[in-house]
Amino acid sequence: MANEKCVSCGVETTYEISTHVDYRSNYVEGVGQLCVSCYTGKKSANEQIVIPREFIVKYSNNAELGEKVREFYYQNY
């Protein structure tokens, strides 16, 4: 069976998708499964960016949202 992926960075975790959340570590209710690095905050600052929340509402088209996120990244990082 396939393993769950980290909702933050996308790396495959050690937990199968079928494993109930009560039997997992690094699972955040309302967020999802995190890898150990994301859960403990040990990822490099360059591996994650923060975008304005309004982007999600304002740009409902996925292609447009992606374009705006990339534009934001190049302007701010």
Global Rg: 15 Å
Strand content: 15-25%
Name the structural class: alpha+beta
Number of DSSP strands? Answer: 4
Report the average pLDDT across residues. 87
Which series of helices and strands comes N to C?
Answer: EEEEHHH
Sum up the overall morphology in one term: elongated
Strand order of the largest sheet: 1-2
- Secondary structure: helix percent: 25-40%
Our count of helices gives: 3
Largest sheet: 2 strands, antiparallel
| Total domains | 2
pLDDT < 50 stretches: none
The span between the termini is: 38 Å
Give an account of the 3D structure:
With 77 residues, this protein is of the alpha+beta class. The chain folds into two domains: 3-43, no CATH class; 46-76. The chain has helices at 36-40, 54-58, 62-76; strands spanning 3-5, 12-16, 27-28, 32-33. The strands form two sheets. Strands 1-2 form a two-stranded antiparallel sheet. It is elongated, with a radius of gyration of 15 Å. The N and C termini lie far apart (38 Å).
